[in-house]
Design a protein that fits this description.
63% of the residues lie in helices and 0% in strands. By secondary structure, the protein is mostly helical. The protein binds iron/sulfur cluster (SF4).
Length: 158
Amino acid sequence: MLTKTPRIPGLDGRKMSKSYGNTITLSESDDDIRKKTKVMVTDPARKRRTDPGNPDVCPVYDWHKLFSSPETLKWSAEGCRTAGIGCIECKAKMADHLIEWIAPIRERRVAYEKHPARVLEVIDSGSAKAREVAKVTMKRVREAVFGWDKKRKQVSGA
Ligand code: SF4
């Protein structure tokens, strides 16, 4: 809620959801990313290439905010508002940045796929860390609840 991108829409502009089929997964190939982003929904008021658009209502621009450089973001917003760029090139540029971002993650994913035992180790170690944090949190909760109750009884003489 406190970021510039509190909501990331799906490819069709609706809430991103696997059941809507409007997602891009971390294992997606470059080709698939390009194909899917090519047909992304844009500002509905921008019907022709010569119509100026509003990036603030465009899902592609929301994705630019996540993956593109500040220069590209500026290029996209200004080009959209002045009809200086077309949606096709805007989407293609966003796809470039998305692919750049996703490529190292995809590589790591493939590496882990080859070593499932390592994945289980990572999960186990994450669970152990989470348990430690939960223990400390529960101790603080108990102190807050029972400490308060004790004080209340002392004051009321119960
Ligand atoms: S130019 Fe870019 S930001 Fe503007 S409507 Fe088209 S895809 Fe969206």
